[in-house]
Amino acid sequence: FILSIAGDERCLGYRVDRQSPYQWVSYEEADQAATEVGSALIELGENHGQNTFIGIYTINSVEWMTTALACHFHSMIYVPLYDTLGEPAIVHIINQTSLKTIFVDKPENVLCLIKLASQVPTLKRIILTKQLPSDKNTEIINKAKEVAIEIMTYTQLRDLGRSKPVAHHPPTPDDMFEICYTSGTTGLPKGAMLTHKNVVCLAQAATEVFSPVFTELETIISYLPLAHSYEQTIELYCLCNGFKIGYFSGDVRQLADDLAALKPTLMPCVPRLLNRMYDNIQATIRPLNSFKRFLFNQALAAKSHDVEKHRIKRHMIWDRFVLKRIQQRLGGRVKLIVSGAAPLSPPILEFLKRVCGAYVVEGYGQTECCGISTCQMLGDPTTGNIGVPLNCNMIKLADVPDMQYFAKDNVGELCIKGANVFKGYFNDEEKTREALDSEGWLHTGDVARWVPTGQIQIVDRKKHMFKLSQGEYVAPERIENIYIHSKYIAQVFVYGNGYKSFTVAIIVPDAEVLEKYAREKNITGNMEELCKKKEIKDLILNDMKQLEKANSLKGFEMSKDIYLHPELFSIENNLLTPTMKTKR
C-alpha cells in the first residue's frame, strides 16, 4: 500500500561525510534492498518463520532498517544489540535466541564477537554493513577464520539475494516482530516479545494523535538508538505515513550538522538533549544587552499567549527576528518535538514550547508496550504530566498498600492493557508473571495519579530502579554494593532521576579509617568538619573511581558527585527501615 503511494518518494537518507548533503533511497529501492537481503538469508540457510532470529548490532542506518524489513518479509524475528549491554549480556542474548547471523558495523564490535566465539557456539556468520578500515581488514578476516565465523559484506549479501530471489513469507498479526532486550534491576537483560499487532496498532494510534500537525510528506531525524522500542515505533509510524527518515552521521556531538543538512520536521528527543539545548540557549541569552533581553522577553510573552490558547503559530516578528536563531539550531523546519524515555523538567518544557516554534509534547512508555502508551495532546499548555492514554491501550491505577497508595484516592501503580502490550519475556515465564497479571495488565512499577484536568502524572517509583535523562536504567543497589568495598566508606546511598544523565551518592565515611588518614596527613577536625573538607571528598571520589574501573561500571552508572554525611544511617534517624534496608 505504501509503495503504491510513495514508491519513488524519498524514504531513507544518509550522509557520506559531514561536508556532504543527504543522499536518499526511495521506498521502491528500500523494498528492493530488503527483498535481496531476505532472499540471501534464506539462501544461506536461515529459514522462513518464527524460529529464525537475526541479530542487528549497528547504529541507526539505512542497513539497519532494510535488514529489519528483510526479517519482516520472511516472518523472521530480529534481535537488536547495542554497546551498553556489555559482554555478559551479549553472550546471554546470542545464546538465548540461538543467533547464527549478526549484522555489525563497527570493527571493534566485530572483534568483540570473534573474541566471544567460544561462548556463543551458534554464531556462524557476521555481515559487515560498513566497509572495514584497511588496517583492520586482514586482522578481522584472519581472526574470524580461526573461530570458523564467516565474514560477508552487505554488498555481497545483496548480490547473492539478487541472484537467488525468494518469494516473501509475510507474518500474521500475532507473529513476533522482534525481541527487544531491556535491562532489569539486576542481572541479565530480559527479552520483551513484541508482535506485529503491537507495533502496527501503536503506529496507528500515533497517526491519530499527530496527523493534525503534518500536511505533506515529512522528514524525521533518526539518532536515538534503534535498538530501543521508542525509536523503532516512531520510525515505523513514519514509514506507514510515507515520511522521509534521515539517519545521523553516527556522532551525536555532530548532530547540529545533520540537523542543518536535513532540516527535519519531526524530532524525537530525550530530556538529556533538550536539557543541553536549554542550557545553551540560556548561555546565549545571559550576555545580551538590556534591549535585546527586553525583546527576547517580549517574544516569550507573546508566545506564552499562543501556548495558553492551545496553538502554535509562526509570528511574523518574534519568530522571524528574535527566535529564528534558536529554531535554526534544529534545522528551522521542525513542527513537532516528542520527548520520551524519561521525564522532562516542567520549567524547561514550558520554555521550549515558547521558543521552538513547534509543538513540544511529552510521552510515556516502556519497552513492554512498544515504547509509548500515553502522550500529551497537541497544544496542551500544561506540564509535569505524561498526557493521556493512546487509543490502543487502557490505563488503570492499582493499590500499592506498602507505600500507602490507593486507587480510590486516584493514585496507585500505573497499569497498561491493550493492543500494544507485549506477550511476555522470551523463555522467562517467571519474569512474565511478574510483569503481566492474569487479566493481561502490564504492571509498570511506576506510581501515578490522575490530575484534575484528566492527564496522568508520575509521582513515585514502586521499584528501586530509576531511569536517567538519556533513558538508561540504573540499579542503585548494585552500584552501592561496589562502592561499599572502599575502605573509606561505611554506608552509601546512590541516587538519580530522569532530569540528570548521571548518578550521585551520599557517603557515610568509615570514621576509624578516615580519622587515621587525617592524623597521618595532619588534617585537623572532627568527623563533621572532615566531611566538609575538599581533600577528603577528593580522596573518597578517587577511591570510588578505582572501584568503578575494576568492576566495569558504565559511564552513566558512575556517581559524578558525592555528599559526605557524618552520621550513620539508622532506624532512629529514619534513614533505615525496621529491616535495616535503606529508605529510598
TrEMBL record:
Q: What CDD domains does the annotation carry? A: LC-FACS_euk (cd05927)
Q: Which residues form the AMP-dependent synthetase/ligase domain?
A: 20-426
* Superkingdom field: Eukaryota
Family matches, as InterPro entries: AMP-binding_CS, AMP-dep_synth/lig_dom, ANL_N_sf, LC-FACS_euk
Q: Which reaction does it catalyse?
A: (E)-hexadec-2-enoate + ATP + CoA = (2E)-hexadecenoyl-CoA + AMP + diphosphate; a long-chain fatty acid + ATP + CoA = a long-chain fatty acyl-CoA + AMP + diphosphate; 15-hydroxy-(5Z,8Z,11Z,13E)-eicosatetraenoate + ATP + CoA = 15-hydroxy-(5Z,8Z,11Z,13E)-eicosatetraenoyl-CoA + AMP + diphosphate; 12-hydroxy-(5Z,8Z,10E,14Z)-eicosatetraenoate + ATP + CoA = 12-hydroxy-(5Z,8Z,10E,14Z)-eicosatetraenoyl-CoA + AMP + diphosphate
Q: What class of enzyme is it?
A: ligase
Q: Give GO terms: molecular function aspect only.
A: arachidonate-CoA ligase activity; ATP binding
EC id:
6.2.1.3
GO cellular component terms?
A: endoplasmic reticulum; membrane
Keywords, ordered alphabetically = ATP-binding, Fatty acid metabolism, Ligase, Lipid metabolism, Nucleotide-binding
Q: What does this protein do?
A: Catalyzes the conversion of long-chain fatty acids to their active form acyl-CoAs for both synthesis of cellular lipids, and degradation via beta-oxidation.
What family, per the record?
Answer: Belongs to the ATP-dependent AMP-binding enzyme family.
Q: What is this protein called?
A: Long-chain-fatty-acid--CoA ligase
Q: Could you tell me which species this protein originates from?
A: Rotaria socialis
